């Protein structure tokens, strides 16, 4: 009799489930459906329009034998590694600095977060002006009398990736700082009191106690940064347009150019599938770490 009176778990929170249904359907149809369409037609010989002429792995073979694609992968790997490391390290250091209950904390926090409020297009244009050899920092210093001063990162094939890195870190570090600061503010004050009583230096407390406790914050921040790195496009377009030559090419720009400028849908979808696979490689371990172990 008690079992008959117990409500069916599938009918619990029906209002919330009904409200979430449109979002779930949109996700399934638009995101999952379009992703499957992308993967399927990446094996086709589609040009300006999708066609059902499937050619196996021919598009992927061409993709990985194209110097432009290989250069874009090299660039995104270099940019991603250094951007990830610098953003996490500098963001955490700034958060630790802000966590000391300093004066004018709100002002400093606003200053650090301001770049993140800008779009990558605006950031790219601003840094293009700053790093332009004939308009920006180099010309300003030379006008002060240092005629031999050279700072032409954006005009040199070998250093243009550093110019993108500077602009990207400048914009994203404030956001990382905000996430880290939220994690630090969640640490119990009793831990700090115990560390002071035991005579443990503050830097050791951060490294051996606080950082392990913030594992969830670090993993979430890592996933957010990594997903943004894979999608890097607008900063490159606004700042360098992929130049000089193909020196600052990135995968997202490669996809856009082949999809719209060159009307080669098959090649663009093959590159998109590789990018999608990369994102899944990032997300699946995160999902397992965050939810799989907890469920177990």
From TrEMBL:
Keywords: Cell membrane, Membrane, Transmembrane, Transmembrane helix, Transport
Subcellular location(s) per record: Cell membrane
Ranges of residues in domain ABC transmembrane type-1: 73-286
Gene3D superfamilies to which the protein is assigned, alphabetical: MetI-like
Residue runs in coiled coils: none
CDD domains on file: TM_PBP2
Transmembrane segments: 20-43, 76-98, 110-130, 160-184, 205-230, 268-289
PANTHER family according to UniProt: ABC TRANSPORTER PERMEASE PROTEIN
Family the entry assigns: Belongs to the binding-protein-dependent transport system permease family.
Official protein name in the record: Sugar ABC transporter permease
């Amino acid at each position: 009799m008690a079992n008959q009176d117990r409500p069916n778990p599938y009918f619990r929170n029906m209002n919330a489930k009904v409200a979430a249904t449109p979002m779930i359907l949109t996700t399934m149809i638009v995101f999952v459906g379009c992703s499957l369409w992308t993967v399927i037609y990446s094996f086709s010989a589609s040009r300006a329009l999708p066609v059902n002429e499937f050619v196996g792995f021919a598009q992927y073979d061409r993709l990985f034998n194209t110097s432009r694609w290989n250069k874009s992968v090299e660039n995104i790997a270099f940019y991603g590694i250094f951007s990830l490391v610098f953003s996490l390290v500098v963001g955490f250091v700034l958060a630790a600095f802000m966590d000391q209950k300093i004066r004018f904390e709100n002002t400093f926090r606003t200053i650090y977060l301001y770049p993140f409020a800008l779009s990558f297009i605006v950031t790219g244009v601003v840094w293009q002006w700053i790093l332009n050899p004939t308009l920006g920092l180099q010309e300003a210093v030379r006008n002060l009398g240092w005629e031999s001063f050279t700072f032409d990162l954006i005009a040199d094939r070998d250093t243009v990736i550093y110019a993108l890195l500077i602009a990207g870190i400048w914009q994203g570090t404030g956001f990382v700082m905000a996430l880290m600061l939220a994690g630090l503010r969640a640490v119990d004050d009793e831990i700090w009191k115990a560390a002071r009583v035991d005579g443990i230096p503050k830097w050791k407390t951060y490294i051996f106690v606080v950082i392990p406790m913030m594992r969830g914050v670090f993993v979430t921040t890592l996933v957010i940064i990594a997903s943004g790195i894979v999608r890097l496009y607008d900063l490159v377009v606004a700042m360098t347009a992929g130049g000089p030559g193909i020196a600052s090419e990135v995968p997202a720009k490669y996809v856009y150019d082949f999809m719209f400028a060159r009307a080669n849908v098959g090649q663009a979808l093959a590159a998109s599938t590789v990018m999608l696979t990369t994102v899944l490689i990032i997300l699946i371990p995160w999902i397992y770490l965050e939810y799989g172990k907890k469920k177990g």
